[in-house]
Write a structure and sequence with these properties.
Distance between the termini of chain A: 71 Å
CATH topology of the largest domain in chain B: ABC transporter involved in vitamin B12 uptake, BtuC
Helix content of chain B: over 70%
Order of helices and strands of chain A: HEHEHEHEEHEHEHHEHEHEHEEHH
Oligomer: heterodimer
Number of helices of chain A: 13
Order of helices and strands of chain B: HHHHHHEHHHHHHHEHHHHH
Helix content of chain A: 40-55%
Structural class of chain B: mainly alpha
CATH architecture of the largest domain in chain A: 3-Layer(aba) Sandwich
Distance between the termini of chain B: 28 Å
Structural class of chain A: alpha/beta
Strand order of the largest sheet of chain A: 2-1-3-4-5-11
Strand content of chain A: 5-15%
Number of domains of chain B: 2
Largest sheet of chain B: 2 strands, antiparallel
Largest sheet of chain A: 6 strands, parallel
Shape of chain A: elongated
Chain lengths: 371, 430
């Protein structure tokens, strides 16, 4: 039986080989030449650029595909954009990246489904002479990532911290202010970066007494929200209100994203408290009306189109033989190396600038206008 | 026609020939569509790196299905094993070999648990493994804290490594070439020994030219495979995972076809009552196939973790369905009792090359899924239709003689002489 199996496969291979012609070792797809550094990679106009994105689980990823399609075409390259399947994203994305390598893509841009499970694929990509760019999410535990294009998450935190101060100042011209701090899930590497960014702004004010954290919980481990789950944030807020704010007013809450911001507002409302100044992130469609009505103070907008364009600009620079402008940020350490990064600045959105900030994103712009 | 039969031997279901033809058709189709990319050495190596874990699962799944059961828990068991193996190296500093042994032990323990419920408490395997799917997925999430756990490079070799390069550079991977040559020699030796043994047993010996052509084809196939695995870019060669797969395929092929236990699995699946009345312990068979499946799921999980470089929280989702699809495309029957190891491997390769080819063409993954679903449906419908018509298939006319389902290895010896001419040959060889 086994012999027949082998015979069958072999016949197929022979038949196929006859069609495809043979190739010698080391002479396969890709240049295969010395590709230790990204600098000696040659990308020509019209070259194939592979973009591997995770499953279309949110509107942002759908937008990303369209944005890449357009910017790759405008830059004069050929696009191969693949989404992982929602049912089985990791193996699917692995296969897609391998296919891009086989097809001879000169640059492979990866929005990872799981950044820690792509080591083998990016190694193969690198070996074939392609430039590997991690997009939006870093690729971890490998030296084979050339660049990382993403929004500066530390900056996101700083903007949130500043927004909290500004928002409270607008309500009550002088301190001291009573605040509470929330941070994201401990298993998300970005969560700590957001928090550190925010504390970069807030800590000096806590030290000089302008801000007072009544519950006394000021470290990441004391403030985190397991799994980014709204219910966890809501119950923690309720507990704090019961324990520390029976006789005092709560002026502001640092929230790392919109989902948690809404959970916090639900808790304060249930406790019969006036809405504190609450920050957010992600520009979720559910939060934009709240911002326009003044319930949630701020959110953060990361323009996906701009982010895609930044990755393609980087590829274009390499094609033109220019050295791309990158930054070394220890927040972009993937466990094996600090990946040179192109960091984009996110936009802080409040009621005042919402309509302008969302220009180009029809859904969000409309929501802001409806306000 | 008789010559064809002599060449390929007997005991093959028509479904498998159909699938071999489908495999060839897929390769030819995608060779044209992708300008030969699909048969580039790099791509063939990738296909084995990417899909070996499904083929490993299919090896166990076909035995489960032959015995008349199903296993829905393999993905969760693979993930559960994967995270334990990854954690053992990260938390307790296990060396790679110890972690692998631990993984196999975990697989055996899980398998014993599921086998106990199926064989002794007689809960249907569908329910036991559905429960297992939930139990071990939950356990996986708890142990891994729902996050990814990277594994060290020396461990990752089992999933992403190659036979290392050594010696002078002839433009090919030396290890692969040596392995290929050894395989060729073994094939020639087996054919030769088979002839000798038949002569000794005074059984019918096939004409010499048949032996030469048959062995010649196999050797040619091996050489092509050797070329494909050996001619990839420097540093690549035959993947270690493909060697693991090959060894397991031979092992389970032998087990199901040539051992008493293997035949008992078919007997229990075909008619459990008859088997029990004939003295087969259905309990033993059921326990073993379920346990064996979990051990192979553990192997698949460990290989995948090696390939990915980390154990992730979503590992294993949907794998059971890929493995089951491979088995049914490979000609197994839902009712049990029918199916082969080689058929499942071919079925798995059909599905893998289909995914790979469509991905190279650049079709989006959602459409790839639809096509794979249709292929599964058509393949099984074809099989069912053929059976209901009482004839093998469209190519049945050509291969009519294969209809009878042989269960004995030495059917040639057991067969009646087909013509007068056959007789003297037997006498002469005494």
């Amino acid at each position: 039986m086994r012999k027949k199996l082998i015979a069958g496969i072999g016949l197929a291979l022979v038949a196929g080989l006859a069609l495809s012609g043979c190739s010698a070792r080391g002479n396969d797809t890709g240049s295969g030449s010395s590709s230790d550094g990204a600098s000696n990679v040659k990308i020509e106009k019209g070259a194939l650029i592979g973009v591997a994105l995770p499953a279309k689980t949110s509107q942002n990823w759908v937008l990303a595909g369209a944005a890449f399609e357009k910017s790759i075409k405008d830059a004069g390259f050929k696009a191969d954009i693949q989404y992982a399947n929602a049912g089985n994203p990791v193996p699917d994305q692995q296969a897609q990246i391998q296919s891009m390598v086989t097809k001879g893509a000169k640059a492979i841009i990866v929005g990872a489904a799981d950044g820690s499970q792509l080591g083998t694929q990016v190694a193969a990509a690198k070996k074939s002479g392609a430039v590997v760019i991690a997009w939006d999410r870093n690729i971890l535990n490998t030296t084979n990532v050339d660049y990382y294009v993403a929004f500066n998450n530390f900056k996101v935190g700083q903007l949130q911290g500043q927004a909290l101060l500004d928002g409270m100042k607008a309500k009550k011209s002088s301190g001291p202010y009573n605040i509470e701090l929330f941070s994201g899930s401990p298993d998300d590497a970005n969560a700590k970066v957001f928090f550190n960014g925010a504390m970069d702004v807030l800590q000096p004010k806590i030290d000089d007494g302008t801000l007072k954290v009544v519950s006394g919980r000021t470290s990441f481990s004391e403030t985190n929200t397991q799994g980014w789950l709204a219910q966890n944030a809501q119950s923690r807020m309720t507990d704090i209100l019961t324990k520390s704010y029976t006789n005092t007013e709560l002026d502001g809450v640092l929230s790392p994203n919109d989902t948690l911001a809404r959970a916090i507002l639900t808790a304060t409302k249930a406790a019969g408290k006036p809405n504190p100044v609450v920050t957010g992130q992600d520009s979720e469609t559910a939060s934009i009306p709240l911002i326009m009505q003044g319930e949630q103070y701020s959110t953060i907008y990361k323009n996906t189109t701009e982010e895609a364009q930044a990755a393609i600009d980087l590829v274009s620079d390499l094609a033109d033989g220019k050295t791309p402008k990158t930054t070394e940020d220890k927040n972009n350490d993937n466990g094996k190396k600090v990946v040179p990064a192109v960091e984009l600045t996110p936009i802080l959105v409040t009621k005042e600038n919402a309509v302008e900030a969302y220009k180009g994103n029809d859904t969000l712009e409309e929501l802001a206008k409806k306000g | 026609m008789k010559n064809l039969k002599l060449l390929f031997g007997k005991g093959n279901s028509i479904g498998q020939y159909g699938m071999i033809i489908a495999l060839i058709a897929i390769l030819i189709l995608f060779s044209i569509l992708t300008n030969g990319l699909i048969l580039e050495p790099t791509n063939i190596i990738n296909v084995f790196l990417q899909y070996s874990y499904i083929l490993i699962l299919a090896l166990g799944m076909v035995m489960v299905i032959i015995a008349g059961h199903i296993d829905l828990s393999v993905g969760s068991v693979a993930a559960f094993t994967g995270i334990i193996v990854a954690q053992s190296m990260a938390q307790w500093n296990f060396p790679a070999w110890a972690a692998i042994i631990l993984g196999l032990a975990v697989g055996a323990a899980v398998g014993a648990w599921q086998g106990f419920w199926v064989a002794f408490v007689k809960v249907p395997a569908f329910i036991v493994t559905l429960a297992g799917q939930l139990i071990f997925r939950g356990a996986n999430q708890i142990i891994g804290n729902s996050t990814s756990q990277p594994v060290p490079d020396d461990y990752a070799q089992i999933g992403s490594g190659f036979l290392p390069d050594f010696g002078p550079d002839f433009g090919f991977s030396n290890g692969t070439v040596i392995l290929g040559i050894i395989t060729c020699l073994v094939l020639v030796f087996l054919e030769f020994r088979g002839r000798q043994r038949r002569k000794k047993m005074q059984a019918e010996v096939v004409p010499l030219w048949v032996s030469i052509v048959r062995t010649g084809i196999l050797v040619a196939v091996t050489l092509v495979a050797t070329y494909l695995f050996g001619a990839g870019p420097a540093g690549t060669s035959i993947p270690i995972v493909a060697i693991i797969l090959g060894v397991l395929t031979i092992l389970y092929g032998f087990l199901t076809k040539n051992t008493i236990f293997g035949r008992q699995v078919y007997a229990v699946g075909g008619n459990a009552n008859a088997a029990v009345l004939s003295g087969v312990s259905a309990r033993k068979v059921n326990f073993f196939v379920m346990m064996n499946m979990s051990v192979l799921a553990a192997v698949a999980g460990m290989v995948f973790v090696g390939y990915s470089g980390a154990s992730g929280p979503a590992d294993g989702t949907g794998w059971e369905l890929d493995a089951i699809a491979a088995v049914f495309v490979g000609g197994a029957a839902v009712a049990g009792g029918i199916g082969t190891i080689s058929g499942s491997i071919i079925g798995g390769l059909v599905m893998a090359l289909l995914s790979n080819g469509l991905s190279l063409v650049g079709l989006e993954s959602n459409k790839v899924q639809i096509i794979r679903g249709l292929v599964l449906l058509v393949a099984v419908a074809f099989d069912v239709y053929s059976k209901s018509q009482g004839r093998p298939s469209l190519i049945g006319g050509m291969l009519k003689q294969f209809q009878r389902k042989d269960t004995e290895q030495n059917t040639v010896a057991a067969q009646q002489p087909r013509s007068i001419e056959d007789q003297p040959e037997k006498v002469n060889s005494q």
